[in-house]
């Protein structure tokens, strides 16, 4: 009983301190507004800096000039040009006037081997007289070069693929050495997931007679998405990469499912598209375009679902943490930090759920393509 009273008293004390800090912050708000040297916190800039791709792997410190791992720039412009991205991030920050909005816009003019190129919103442009022509937030008159640079997301992709290969090779060696025994270590953790994808995803949606040749593909996309979703939670701290929050990556995964589906499709699949059973002939000119569009909308839904869910989770967490800096008072952490922690834990569930849904829907689409006609 005494312990319960102490707990309640401590809780009330914390709330009181929190309220006093808020009151103190409100009384000093006018004074803080008068401090011209204090720059307002840019929430949008901070969030975009964490979730967007970049040509450097920023660790800590200011956005330009902080501690970073500078990645190689590979351009094809009258030949192959290879140099470090540090020539951009340590280049001179230029200011130009947007012709429509009349606002100043910043871009980075490269130095050394990057001279003659500019970095604007992480895109590389050829400069005309050392300037960019910007209208309404877009570059006009400056051309982009063929950019094959190793960006932060590309490096994260290589790391994630290597990580999966090492883990799966370790599990395969265990079963090759010990046979069908009770699993240990990594095998004990991964076996339920592998069995789940085989039985609940592949066999249930493709069919008992045809599922086996699709299991390797479904396992690959499941573990690739799952592990990279978990690694994608690292952008919440300095030095992370948001791979599955990049729509180019989710687009490629969706295209892979589309290709596997179309290659596996049989006569019955195309018959349902061009001569849907039970549909009057007069309606076929309407139904056929709808069915053809449906072939593309299915992988499109896969792409958007994965991209939107992973990106939205990161944005929510970062926005909640930003409340502390917007109000310029650490007391707001009593509200924003628990909420951000709750969303972060929820994202662990979403990381698994999105990998499962992508694999299950891929199996469902493939199953529809290989299904035989029922008599």
Give short descriptive properties of this protein.
alpha+beta; disordered N terminus; 11 helices; four-stranded antiparallel β-sheet; three-stranded antiparallel β-sheet; 2 domains; 375 residues; 11 strands
If helices are DSSP runs of H or I spanning 4 or more residues, what is the number of helices? 11
Number of domains: 2
Percent of sequence in beta strands: 5-15%
Q: Output mean pLDDT.
A: 82
- Uncertain stretches of 5 or more adjacent residues: 1-38
Q: What is the topology, as strand order, of the major beta sheet?
A: 5-6-7-8
Specify the structural class.
alpha+beta
Entry summary:
This protein is of the alpha+beta class and 375 residues long.
Structural summary, described in words:
With 375 residues, the protein is α+β, with helices and mostly antiparallel strands. The chain has 2 domains: 72-149, no CATH class; 153-370, no CATH class. The chain has 11 helices and 11 strands. It has helices spanning 2-27, 29-33, 43-51, 86-89, 152-178, 186-206, 215-231, 247-264, 267-274, 284-327, 333-370; strands at 56-60, 67-70, 72-76, 80-84, 92-97, 104-109, 117-120, 123-126, 134-135, 138-139, 146-147. The chain has a 4-stranded antiparallel β-sheet, with no helix packed on it. A 3-stranded antiparallel β-sheet has the order 4-3-11. A two-stranded antiparallel sheet has the order 1-2. A hairpin with a 2-residue loop joins strand 7 and strand 8 (123-126). It is globular and about 70 Å long. It starts with a helix and ends in a 5-residue tail after the last helix. Mean pLDDT is 82; it is low at 1-38.
